[in-house]
What we know:
By secondary structure, this protein is of the alpha+beta class. About 25% of the residues lie in helices and about 25% in strands.
Amino acid sequence: MKVPWKWLMEYCRSPWSVEETAERLTMVGVSVENVVHDSFEGKGLITAKVVSVFPHPQRPGLSVGYVDAGGRRYAVVSGAPGFKPGVVTAFAPPGSKLPRKGSQKKQGPAEDDSSRSGPEALEVLARDVHGVLSEGMVLSANEILTGEGPRPGEDILIFPEGTASGLPLDEFLDLDDYVLELDLTPNFSHCLSIIGVAVELSAISGVPVRLPKTLASWSFLDPAGSLETGDDSSAAAWEGEGPRIEVVLEDPDLCPHYVGKVIRDVKWGYSPIQVERRLYLAGMRPINALVDATNYAMLETGQPLHAFDLDKLAGGVIQVRRSRPGESIVTLDGVVRELPPESLVIADARGPVAIAGIMGGKETEVSETTRNVFLESAWFSPRSVRATSMRLGLRTEALIRFEKGVDPTAQVACVERAAELITRVSGGTPLPGWSRARAFEPPRRKTVLDLRYLEKVLGQSMEKDQVEGILRRLGFSVQDKDGDLEVSVPPRRVDVAEQVDLIEEVARHLGYGSFLGQPLNVTVSPNVPAVAVYKERLRDFLRCLGGSEVVTNSLCGPDDIAAMGWEADDPRANPVKLENPLTSDESLLRTSLLPGLLKGLETNKRYKAAGTVIWEIGTVFFPSKEELPLEKLQLAIAAYGVLSPKTWNAPPLEADFYYMKGLVQSLLEGLGVDDVTVEKRAGMPFHPGRSCKVLSKGVTLGEMGEVHPLVLEKYGLDRRTALAWFDVEALRAMSREPRYQPVPRFPRVERDLAVIAPEELEAGAIERLVRREAKHLVGFRVFDLWKGAPVPAGKKSIAFSMIFGAPDRTLTDDEVTLEIQKIVRKLEEELNVTLR
């Protein structure tokens, strides 16, 4: 939510500077994330009076005139219909500058002036226009605000009679402003309007809110809600004169209140420049005076409205109903949208003309030909409009307000305010009364605030008058009830439902800094879950091994699953789906930590990191027959690129299979996992020739290896990348606590062997056999591998070192020789391995 400062000041004039006001609002929960000074970009633009005008000597349709710019006259060529003698308009003399093209449309107030980039401002120069020198240009509002040309049907600005010439335009129009950028939590939906923020400002400053006359006449901020007239019961009602537009509520649970207002004989045009500037500052694009009025009223009050071209509505009926099979609508953005089943729509006799609470239809929009307008103001079910929005993937300013809830009593007051704004600019005659249907009255909400409970929650007592004063300033009605307070909740405060919500209102306006600190007097249980202790043990080892811990999103999308290349019968390829996801990219519960880590590597690569190592301990989810998904705790490690650059005495260290193997071996040794074996070739997303499964005592712990080229391509990674993942529960089951081993007292004996083995035989098989047969073996290491001459085809040479030792004596050569002979014999018998 963006709040233009001067607009806010019209309703509640703050006694503080804009910065201090922002700070004070933030301290009561209305979080002001940023204060931006949005200065007008035009330079040297002034007011000027047209002194004389005559036709262009060579170009019909153009006029030549002289303008008085405060003591100096300029010759100007223009084709604007408003370029007539006697008018005072906006003028850009030679040397002045217009804003950069599209500056308002592209940015609005999202950035400070100093950080803006793009085309330079357009300097106005004297130029020849078909034989006549034009010394500057007279300006339309669009040229002043955006630097672009006049819009269709747009004339130059014409100021009130008597306006002086030569006035700086930015000062005369008061275009510079500050913008408060709010970052509101869901319970501050009442601040999705300028008046809502003004109420909060009034409560902290004591300055009363000044409402526009129309809203004040309808008691817009009354604790009981806006005034209601007539008795509609549950039937559609026509209150007033003129042609009847019948409103039919087919689903009153989704729309219990709908109000329509007819305005006849309007004139199409554009809003005053000050209104357009405010809309830009508030983050909305001006369209035309009719649409701008509805958007202005929405930003002002928080109630979304929509303007239909009355003459394009068929059958004299408005139906508020669910969509029917096969129905579609072309929305205002020109997109053909298939309506999801059971979506709430606004329909005429032909079919849908709007998606309720989200966006209107193209066929009934107001345009240059519009003469009669039907204004809509309604209350739609938050759950219904949100569900439709999610299915369509469409979010609008109206939806943001409806999905959080709007004042169910404000529809008439707000439609009258929009009608006032339209007639002020576009003329026309509002017909008395409304076309209206209401299924039931909104309930009056009352809550008793127990002052003893308030003291218990806040930790300190408060005077009743102090509590009552805070609530009254916020618009609540308060009465004494048996020593406590009976509070009537304004209908616009949809976030207040229970006693604790009232306590929060009191606490935030009392000031959280005013609560006294007290020493914590609790007993902390020493019973820490074993899995939590093990996770910290894992973290300690991983920190020692290098890299950074990350936390990735537990939600993913179909593209993330597809990118990993899992087979259809792999449990990881069949994730749990969310019923109402925010986006398709976050519609599934993750089944692996690897996609998140690959995205992290992609981000590092995008920021030109040569290489990195990251790891995560997190939960993954799988479908279950139970109510909730099956959860498993996993560890995943990812390494990418060059981890250590080349030096004069060492080659670069790359994130390949052997780097990850060394890291995993160090981790497993530190955790006390023994009898570790590997099986060749892990599944996707691993490389088939550079990956393996990791087991301990026959139990699969996880997988590791380099990433498959197809997966690398999908994530845009162009260097070697290695991954590993482990089931934390399996790791914990195979881990043992570190045990002290004394330093050997007796010398060790080292022997090397070189053997010829079948090419397909893994070195791990040799190691397992050696460890099984050698009674005094304390160390084993492969140090050489060779294929090719003089080794026969289909064979390979493997050289390994063995270390023998005993805890109570020095082994003799004969003892070691006997063990080696036994090893050689078993290698030949069981593995077809011979000495080289």
